């Protein structure tokens, strides 16, 4: 191999190394930052807002930014977010509006219990944040929905349960059009400059963005 060939080989190797470093840096930035960022909702804004606002959400009634969280009681990521992030959000005045869903059966497998359906229906009907807090503070297996009317066998309350499920089905394609794959919990909020933002915030890596955008 001549000197010229050796130089050309070295240039090629250096170019490949630079490309590899750039690719590694880009992947690292995506993996550590971009993949966790919430999405700006630019399509179907009014429809999404209407679905959320008309759902049976419960909140502490704070005067700050509105933050919607679509959840179900035994969702591990939902439980974790409430425990770890709600205190800070509340200190910042964020009105955490939780929309609990009693999921429909899937392939013959029950995804909710009679007690869960009764509690969800009560939350939607009477909008009690205190009830939501008691439910969250009680182990699932110990919760008996004391003093709450059953939803099963009650046409009106069963309709409430179905409305929640229908709202989730409506949100799935609307979110997909904005690059958000529906997962539990789905979170939607507005920034100070009026942007509608959302994420399926399953991982802790997403939390810092939520806190920052809501001033917590």
- Beta percentage is 5-15%
CATH topology of the largest domain: Glutaredoxin
Write down the overall geometry: elongated
Task: Report the CATH superfamily of the largest domain.
Answer: Glutaredoxin
CATH architecture of the largest domain: 3-Layer(aba) Sandwich
User: Distance between the terminal alpha carbons, to the nearest Å?
Assistant: 63 Å
**Total of domains:** 2
Strand neighbour order, sheet with most strands = 1-5-4-2-3
Task: Give average pLDDT, whole number.
Answer: 89
Q: Which consecutive residue ranges, at least 5 long each, have pLDDT under 50?
A: 26-31
Give the structural class: alpha+beta
What's the CATH C level of the largest domain?
Alpha Beta
């Amino acid at each position: 191999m001549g000197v010229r060939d050796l130089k050309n080989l070295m240039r090629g190797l250096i170019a490949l190394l630079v490309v590899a470093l750039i690719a590694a840096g880009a992947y690292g930035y995506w993996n550590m930052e971009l993949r966790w960022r919430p999405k700006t909702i630019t399509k179907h804004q009014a429809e999404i807002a209407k679905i959320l606002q008309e759902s049976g959400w419960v909140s502490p009634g704070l005067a700050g930014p509105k933050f919607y969280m679509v959840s179900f009681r035994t969702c591990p990521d939902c439980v974790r977010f409430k425990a770890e992030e709600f205190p800070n959000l509340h200190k910042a005045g964020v009105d955490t509006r939780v929309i609990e869903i009693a999921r429909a059966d899937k392939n013959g497998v029950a995804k909710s219990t009679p007690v869960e359906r009764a509690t969800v229906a009560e939350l939607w009907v009477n909008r009690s944040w205190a009830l939501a807090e008691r439910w969250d503070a009680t182990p699932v297996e110990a919760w008996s929905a004391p003093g709450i009317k059953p939803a099963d066998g009650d046409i009106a309350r069963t309709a409430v349960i179905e409305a929640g499920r229908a709202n989730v089905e409506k949100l799935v394609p609307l979110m997909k059009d904005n690059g958000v794959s529906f997962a539990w919990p789905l979170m939607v909020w507005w920034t100070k400059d009026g942007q509608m933002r959302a994420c399926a915030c399953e991982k802790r890596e997403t939390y810092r963005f939520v806190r920052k955008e809501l001033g917590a």
